[in-house]
Amino acid sequence: MARLLEHTNKKKDATPHIFRHTHISMLTEANVDLNTIMERVGHDDMQTTLKIYTHVTNKN
Questions:
Q1: pTM value?
Q2: Residues 22, 50, 43, CA angle at the centre, nearest 5°?
């Protein structure tokens, strides 16, 4: 992870989990339906996906 971060302009520490948030947010931006996202990432509760993982971005 540290080696990957050397190639970015990211200033704060990042973990592999941040990619999960980014992935789910990008799927949301691409208008992938919620059930597909939930199945892909293994969520059983849609509120988990909606409240924790989907983030408002400049594209929305």
A1: 0.68
A2: 80
* 34 DSSP 8-state letter: H
> Would you say 1 and 12 are in contact if contact means Cβ atoms under 8 Å apart?
no
pLDDT, average across residues 16-23: 84
What is the C-alpha separation between 14 and 6, in angstroms, rounded? 11
Nearest residue to 28 (alpha-carbon basis) of 9, 10, 50: 50
Give the CA distances from residue 12 to residues 9, 23, 58, 60, in Å, rounded to whole numbers and listed in that order: 9, 19, 21, 25
Average pLDDT, the chain: 82
